[in-house]
Amino acid sequence: MSDQDIDAFIDSGTRLLGIPVHDEWRGAIRLHLVISLDHARNVAEFPLPDEADPAPVFTA
Amino acid sequence: MTAAAIAAAVGSRRRSAREVIAATLAGIERRDKTLNAFTAIVADRARARAAAIDAEIAGGAAAGPLAGVPFAVKNLIDIAGLPTLAGAKINRDHPPAAADAMLVTRLEKAGAVLVGALNMGEYAYDFTGENSHDGPSRNPHDLTRMTGGSSGGSGGAVGGGLVPIALGSDTNGSIRVPASFCGTFGLKPTYGRLSRAGSFPFVASLDHLGPLARSTRDLALAYDAMQGHDPLDPVCAQRPAEPATPLLDRGAGGLRIVRAGGYFRDGATAEALSALDRIAVALDARREVEIPEAARARSAAYVITAAEGAALHLDRLRERPGDFDPEVRDRLIAGALIPGIAVARAQKFRRWYRDAVLRLFDEVDAILAPATPFVAPPIGQKSFVLNGKEVPLRPNIGIYTQPISFIGLPVVAVPVPEAAGGLPIGVQIIAAPWREDIALRISHHVETAGVARAPWPPEPGE
After folding, report:
1. Which of B299, B338, B348 sits opposite A42 (nearest CB)?
2. Contacts of B80 (CB under 8 A, 6+ apart)
3. pLDDT of B397-411, one tens digit each?
4. Which residues in chain A have Cβ-Cβ distances shorter than 8 Å to B236?
5. What is the least distance, in Å, from the CA of A2 to any CA of chain B?
6. Residue B462 burial by CB count (10 A; 0-12/13-18/19+): exposed, middle or buried?
């Protein structure tokens, strides 16, 4: 994705969430978002069976 | 003096708790101007508590195992009468805590004396010990360098010798990183072992509290005093206390100890690997194991942290974004934008990874790994080179701690002095869940062998 694509996602996402963003914050937010999405991609590439339970277990 | 020595002296009335606390408060007054480890000092409370301990002992009461031992807590841990800052400007508007956190209560029940609250990175989202509101905590071994974080004041106060014991929190490495940079011992217990009741959270599914100290015995004494179920923390396990202090002298003989290879070698500097070698040689740990998918585990911990942290702070990001430390705010806003599916996948992976790593412990008792890839960097440094690529410093100091806390394994970080340029660096001793005793025994062994040691810093100005 290009910086423009990421910035468009930041703009729409933060608007949706009601988080005000100043222009001078955008570069750092983009940097951290790209790092986070890279990590998310790394996790998503690992094949897991449909039946795999997530780690936290709620106990009633 | 170590906590054990103080408790022995106070318990036998060779020294009064009042004298101990007076000397501690004077030391903080003299040295914290430069270390910036403390954000609050509760001198009146400490003096009153010390006087009460002396009176109890004089009256024939049995002295607690931490009688007269001064300690301080990261400022995300409740102290009755003070707002719980969690390193944040925003939290200064909170009302004072109505009661002490459970761990403070338990340490004081064992005779310890709280002397103050400690500096930390805002909302615990740093590995540096930097804080734009309170200023950075400073490394006692080189004031121009980071303490590490987020329990930066805890590392600085113990590494600097201001208090023998401090409490910190560790979500992804926030006890083990400052222990490494400041040259202290640090214990991140098993997830769910120690109560978190009365502490400001960060990432509920990853948060731990634990002690830092200048010796294994002090670490174990503090840990033992804090154990036990607490219904006020829904994560705190229904387990009885399993004291580790009486087991320390069993040593490391007969334990199967190995080194972590692969991911835990990549990116480490020569000094980190040399420190690991020194500990491994002292333990005759020659075999190497590969912790499976450690890099991906770190990725999953990163994603969960960013998203859960952002969820915790969403209202504050909406209403008071300008009052955050900018370094924290920008990461939290990025975290708010992570798709939910990424978090769900990370939690599924976490289960797989836990099962895979626990299988390793069928064949080994403990795994050794670096605590940090390097010694303390200069305050203000923003990036470093990891595997040939320049990466931001703040999110990446915890590359070796994050895959371990991700599945809640108990770890003792042990300090190896003079690793590079006179600075210490830490090594992680990682055990199976609920086997803090094994990690502490190994820590005690390498300390007794003289390989691990908390170095004393020069007095400021020397």
Report:
1. B299
2. B96, B97, B98, B99, B100
3. 999 999 999 999 999
4. none
5. 16
6. exposed
Domain boundaries, chain A: 3-44
ipTM score of complex: 0.96
d(CA B125, CA B6): 34
- Residue for token pair 């990163």: B302
- Average pLDDT score over chain B: 97
DSSP assignment of B328-371: HHHHHHHHHTS-HHHHHHHHHHHHHHHHHHHHHTTT-SEEEEES
Q: Which amino acid is at B191?
A: Y
Does the annotation mark B188 as catalytic? no
Domains within chain B, CATH numbers bracketed? 3-448 (3.90.1300.10)
- Alpha-helical runs (H) found in B402-435: 402-405
How far apart CA B337 and CA B177 sit, in angstroms, is: 28
The answer to whether residue B375 scores a pLDDT higher than 60 is yes
Distances (CA, A) of B78 to B83, B182, B196, B197: 8, 24, 10, 9
Average pLDDT over residues B41-59: 98
List CB contacts of B182: < 8 A, sequence separation 6 or more.
B139, B140, B141, B147, B148, B155, B156, B158, B159, B160, B376, B424
Of B38, B444, B370, B457, nearest to B218 by C-alpha is B444
B299 is catalytic: no
Query: How far apart are alpha carbons B118 and B134 in whole angstroms?
Result: 10
Query: Residue B208 phi/psi, 5° resolution?
Result: -130, 155
Q: Which residues of A touch B293 (CB under 8 A)?
A: 46
Which residue in B150, B151, B169, B443 is the catalytic one? B150
Neighbouring C-alpha atoms within 13 Å toward the C-beta of B416? 28
Task: State the amino acid at position B351 in one-letter form.
Answer: R
The tokens for B215 are 């010796």
Nearest residue to B147 (alpha-carbon basis) of B377, B328, B327? B377
**Catalytic annotation present for B169:** no
pLDDT value for B334: 98
